Amino acid sequence: MDLLGTILNKMDGPPPASEKEKKEARDMRSKIEREQRIEKSRREAFRKNILTQIGVFLEDGTKKRVKFSPMDKIMRSIVHEVAETAGVIAYSFGSEEVDRHVVLFKKEHAPSDEELHALRNGEVYSPTSVKPTGEGATPLLGSTGQTSSKPVGPVSNYRDKYKHLISTEISEPAPLKPQPERNFGFVPSSNKRDVRSIEETLIDLRTKKKAKLEAPDDS
To answer: Which SMART domains would you find in this protein's record (predicted)?
Structure first.
């Protein structure tokens, strides 16, 4: 035998397995196949159960959503698949391998973005706690960028300038009307600082005018 033949003989495969080893391999293969059949049967039963529950959910007009117990990823994928086929919205919430679960929603009662955000954070969603944002939201008083539909004009008086600090429930004072018997040229005498001096001035003017009229004409 030449050198090449010797090398080829040494490169032959492993010795054939014994009958015992062959039997162990057959048993292992049978066990795996049996477990696969059991798992497949379990998933099919679970799928039918979910399909039944979704059917009951859709027929119940009082329910808007249904929450399932926590389950593994494979089972959740089955719920999502059946829900999509039935035309139902499905979302998963919670932590993996802790409390991850599926919630189904009817399409006409789909959750809002705010509710989804709360559920994904493990919070209890309350519509009244959501602050309005974007167009159509009422701006807060004193907030930056507040706009008003009223025309902007010069402030004419103290009350207009500070009307946001003065109660609007206080009635405006009635305007004062001049009294003819106490007026001098429609100027209220109550507004004069020295009424007597004005009267004396008028008398003096009348006296001078009268004296001028009574004076002889030198021409």
So the answer is: R3H
